[in-house]
Amino acid sequence: MNRAELETLKAEALEQVGAAETADALEAVRIHYLGRKGLLPQIMKILKDVAPEERAAFGQGANALKLELTDALDKRSLVLHGTQSMGVNVPAFDTTLPGRWMPRGSIHPVSQVIEEAVRIFATLGFTVAEGPDVENGYRNFEALNTPDYHPSLDDKDTFWLGDGLLLRTQTSPVQIRVMEQNPPPVRIVTPGRCYRRDTTDATHSANFHQIEGLYVDRQVSLADLKGTLAHFARQMMGPEVKVRFRPHFFPFTEPSVECDFTCHVCKGSGCRVCKQSGWIEIAGAGMVDPRVFRKVGYDPEAVSGYAFGMGIERIAMIRFGIPDIRMLYDNDVRFLKQF
Ligand code: PHE
Fold first, then answer.
1. What share of the chain is helix, strand, coil (3-state, %, to 5)?
2. Cis peptide before 239 (omega within 30 of 0)
3. Which ligand 1 atom lies nearest to the CA of residue 171?
4. What is the enclosing helix (H) or strand (E) of 280?
């Protein structure tokens, strides 16, 4: 036998593999060529009789035959396995098998509340503005009419980073950014992370989220603010929720209020969650102080505006009945997947 005959043999063998229509027929081909008493072992046996100058080439040819044939047998076997298990000539795919389980993620409750809040305010014409977590003291405090002797500037309350930079303690500096960049009217909401040196407990976290709102135009009034927050409350918590304003103080709004929603648990009659008051504090708000307008170059005689800021975690906790803020940050997937 010589090299050329080997090639002919290979071509024949591959043809037979392709022609095999059943697994049994394919197995017969395999045994005929590669079986213990098959053709290939016999060829290997005569290798020593081949003329020395041809031996290497012949050996390589025999090896190639073995490899190619094995590969062709495997591939043909896969095809035949499919057609035979189904009994008909279709690919190896059983549509009656149960599907494979794909792990599915879920949206974090904090993100859900942010998305929902943005959606609600968008229906009222608010667009989304964002600012960085690292702010300077000017935008976080001074431009917001918060003097440098104010306690919130203290190292006890604020994470100062050096060079007058800090981790913003509220989303209110975004108000300044937006007004510095845009002439009135302005109608924005700004969701984002805030940082305070609070000791963590069931209702406090050093890192939390707020959504801020700012509306500046001609003749904006406190009644507009109240109507907007009442509408938001009903959309977010359900049609039966009521809101109330309590007088308060913020350096950057005058007058300032705190806004409460009726307790979602007792509907206002008083329970443990609302500490028997029937109300839950949701937002700080008020009419933008003229001094803030002057800082950003707005004319307080020409425009007025309201601003509000609310805690996202607070809303998520009452909306989903989550008793402890820390659960939102433990990253326990079993917990987070429930919402
Ligand atoms: N920035 C205030 C806070 O964090 C909330 C607020 C926003 C109050 C806008 C008034 C107007 O408590």
1. 45, 20, 35
2. no
3. 1
4. strand 279-288
> Is the pTM of the predicted complex or chain greater than 0.90?
no
Residues 166-193 have pLDDT tens digits of 999 999 999 999 999 999 999 999 999 9
For the segment 141-173, what is each residue's pLDDT rounded down to a tens digit?
A: 999 999 988 888 888 899 999 999 999 999 999
> How remote is the CA of residue 285 from the centroid of ligand 1, in Å?
6
Q: How many CA atoms lie within 13 A of 9 on its CB side?
A: 21
Q: What are phi and psi of 26, to 5 degrees?
A: -65, -40
Domain positions in the chain: 3-80, 109-336
Q: What is residue 216's three-state secondary structure? A: strand
- How far is it, in rounded angstroms, from Cα 285 to Cα 191? 15
Q: Which CATH architecture has domain 109-336?
A: 2-Layer Sandwich (3.30)
Å from CA of 221 to ligand 1 middle = 17
Range 71-92 burial, b when 16+ CB lie within 10 A, else e? ebbeebbeebeebeeeeeeeee
| Closest atom of ligand 1 relative to the 306 alpha carbon | 11
Q: Which amino acids bring their CB within 6 angstroms of ligand 1?
A: 170, 172, 212, 250, 253, 284-286, 307-309
Whole-angstrom distance, CA of residue 332 vs CA of residue 217: 45
Atom of ligand 1 nearest to the CA of 194: 4
How far away, in angstroms, is 255 Cα from ligand 1 center?
12
